[in-house]
Amino acid sequence: MILSALLTSVGINLGLCFLFFTLYSVLRKQPWNSAVYAPRQIAKEEEEEDGFFNFDMLLPSAGWVRRAWQVSEDELLCRSGLDAVVFIRIFVFSSRVFAIGGAIGIFVLLPVNYLGNQLSIDFYDLPNKNLETFSISNVNDGSNWLWVHFSAAYIFTGVVCYLLYYEYNHISLRRIASFHSSPPQPRHYTIVVRGIPSSEGRSFSEAVQAFFTDNHPSTYLSHMVVHRTSKIRSLIKDAEKLYRTLARAKSQSSQQINKKDRLLGLFQGRDTDVSHYEQKLEDLERNVRTEQHSLTEIHQEVPAAFVSFKSRFGAAVALHMQQGLDPTEWLTEEAPEPRDIHWSSFSSSFMKRWISRIVVVVACVALTILFLIPVVLVQGLANLEQLETWFPFLKGILDLTIVSQIVTGYLPSLILQLFLYLVPPVMLMLSSMEGYLSSSSTEKSACTKVLWFTIWNIFFANVLSGSAFYQVNIFLEPKNIPKILAEAVPGQATFFISYVVTSGWTKLSSEISQLTSLLWSYVTGVFSSNDDEEIEVPKLPYHSEIPRILFFGLLGTTYFFLAPLILPFLLIYFCIGYITFRNQLLNVYEPKYETNGRFWPIVHGSTIFSLILMHVIAIGIFGLKKLPLASTLTVPLPILTLLFNEYCRRRFVPLFQYYPTESIVKKDKEDQNRPNMAEFYDKLVTAYRDPALLPVQYARNNSSLSSPLLQSQV
User: Fold this and answer.
1) Would strands 331-334 and 301-309 be described as parallel, antiparallel, or unpaired?
2) How far apart (Å, rounded) are the C-alpha atoms in residues 296 and 693?
3) Is the distance from CB of 281 to CB of 239 less than 8 angstroms?
4) Which end of the chain has fewer CB atoms at under 10 Å, N or C?
């Protein structure tokens, strides 16, 4: 890809970004768009609309940038939770890394690359040259200037490791501080017990009570056995759909009462529809209650239960100790938040979960192989000669300058991004099949899958298909990996710069403008007459956003000394992303659950992998550049990085798995003086009751259509 094609891609995306950010600055001030740009505020209180037109509403304003910037980390933690803080810390960490790396790369490495003469450069025809002239490929073989790149690799590795340690320590302290400052939470007093042994004539509930009363007499408080409620959930879901239909029918009927045609009886059928829906709703309510009463039978119980204790320490002891003589029975694991539970996973047996995970692995491999098809297509677009070979009838069109620049500079990364939009929901669906008990664990698993899928299919597949596609035996001969990567990676620098601009900058502009949600809001507003429908506040999809950020970090780390021209584009992305997502977390997204920062170990592991990949490529590139001493002296770098990773794993990972005894005991002692602990224990007994088992009452005769569908009666 030549420089002019890259400039065309950057220009197109800059125009789109400016358009979307200007659109957001105008539309966010319109009161009728609050459901899109500030659903968190709408959900908490009803906004008052002005009754007159204000010309200032049509003027773009950047006040939201100042407000997003001024919010402190403590306030963000209070409003959106520790997971949101960790997400923003990824941008902070990446901005610091690439601010330092960008300064070294642009002011030190780029001039060294530019002044080399390994490649023939005609400076008067620079826009039509490949960007390899700004990469390490332009440095002469055996040149002493390569020692500058060698030194930069060591300095950059040291900076990244220091910042990684700082962030890991900062977030772990935040996690402990959040635990100490939080009020008593049911999940800290509760564990999940699976594999409850069955005995004839005794229910699982009786078995759990007898076992924990005998073995944990001083700390055991209560338990809640899980039941098979899939049928009830299906009925409740049908009832929710029917209630919305009934609400719309009532709304339309009330609007037509004041019409003159109503006197002629032309809309009598509407009243009939309302009565029909009400009757069906009563039938569903009766079916739900019948199914709930049938769950009292023993055969409807699942060999799993939530067991609650009188103290956090009592729950921790039961969690970490083997409970029964048979290690396959009385299995314990940490209880998720009540709002985070994935209830349908309890019904799956151990064998079913084991088979499901094998199926998921096979499905992920198959998806990875199938994704090579769009990758090959993208590489064909990036190579005009190959594209003309495939489609000779396009030769005349491709000879046009503007067409060739758009095809080679913009379309490849755009097409790849469109295919990538399908990956996160597919991976989330596959992770849900693995039988995780919580939605957060499912999303963490999907996050890891999307990350490694992206690294393999976007980085390695593009690199190898674009420069060494037929060398499929690269991983069969490990000693050749540094050499092959060193030959292949620098040639794809321009494609990845275009990818950062297309996938990164444009994604941020579409994120802030919420164009899809805005259009959907207008469409549903046209076809729906019920203005009082409850606004659903979305959650931030960590499983798709975190892998994207980490992949950009991998690109920056890998190309730091190879093609430092990519670093300013990445730094701009991280800085804009920092402001954009702070605004979204405060106004748009609302946390549905809290993992207390457990996404950060994924960030740490991905960064370590990026450093190791950079080191492997450095070993190969110095060998190709006929500087064997530098290649040899680079070998300690990955070893030192792995030792650093092992230290961090032993130092910090245990804090992200379980809370230490010192913190638990201290918190238990503090809670002994709380005046409302008796009330908390009363709520703890029913905290993990399946929502499908709660008595329900349908609000049929309530004139307010904004009232909830189901009113729980405990």
Assistant:
1) unpaired
2) 10
3) yes
4) C
Greater pLDDT, 622 or 25: 622
DSSP assignment letter at 701? S
The radius of gyration of the chain's CA atoms, rounded to the nearest angstrom, is: 30
Tokens for 217, please give them: 């007499």
| CB 168, CB 86: distance < 8 Å | no
Which residues lie closer than 8 Å to 251 by C-beta, 6 or more apart?
Answer: 529, 530, 532, 705
Which residue type occupies 5? A
Query: Could you give the C-alpha distances from 335 to 220, 417, 438, 519, 614, in angstroms and in order?
Result: 15, 37, 9, 40, 40
CA 392 to chain centre: 42
Check pLDDT > 80 for residue 63.
Answer: no
Q: Is 687 helix (H, G, I), strand (E, B) or coil?
A: coil
- CA dist 202 and 370 (Å) reads 51
List alpha helices for 125-203, DSSP H: 146-181
Instruction: Report DSSP letters for 266-284, one per residue.
Output: TTHHHHHHHHHHHHHHHHH
CA 613 to chain centroid: 24
- SS3 readout for 182-245: CCCCHHHCEEEEECCCCECCECHHHHHHHHHHHHCCCCEEEEEEEECCHHHHHHHHHHHHHHHH
Between helix 542-558 and helix 423-432 the angle, nearest 10°, is: 120
Long-range contacts of 217-221 (CB under 8 A, 24+ apart): 218/310, 218/314, 219/309, 219/310, 219/311, 219/313, 219/314, 219/315, 219/317, 219/318, 220/307, 220/309, 220/310, 220/314, 221/189, 221/308, 221/309, 221/310, 221/681, 221/684, 221/685
Strand partners of residue 193: 305, 332
- The CA–CA distances, whole Å, from 685 to 221, 675, 681 equal 8, 18, 6
- The burial class, CB within 10 Å (0-12 / 13-18 / 19+), for 73 is middle
**How far is residue 242 from each of residues 131, 238, 279, 288, measured CA to CA in Å?**
60, 6, 11, 14
**Tokens in use for 354?**
């084991």
d(CA 268, CA 573): 59
Contacts of 117 (CB under 8 A, 6+ apart): 138, 140
How far apart, in whole angstroms, are the C-alpha atoms of residue 617 and residue 22? 41
Cα–Cα dist 141/113, whole Å: 12
Q: Which of these, 463, 430, 415, lies nearest to 359 by C-alpha position?
A: 430
- Interhelix angle for 600-624 vs 542-558, to 10°? 30
444 φ/ψ sector (left φ>0, alpha ψ -120 to 50, else beta): alpha
**Whole-angstrom distance, CA of residue 464 vs CA of residue 485:** 8
Q: Give the span between the Cα atoms of 621 and 631, in whole angstroms.
A: 8
Q: Are strands 190-194 and 220-227 parallel, antiparallel or unpaired?
A: unpaired
Q: What tokens does 692 get?
A: 């499908």
Region of 201 on the Ramachandran plot (φ > 0 left; ψ -120 to 50 alpha; else beta): left
Q: Does position 184 have pLDDT exceeding 70, yes or no? A: yes
Residue 17: predicted pLDDT: 60
Return the minimum-mean-pLDDT range out of 126-135, 369-378, 396-405, 596-605. Answer: 396-405
- SS3 category, 418: helix
- Quote the pTM value: 0.84
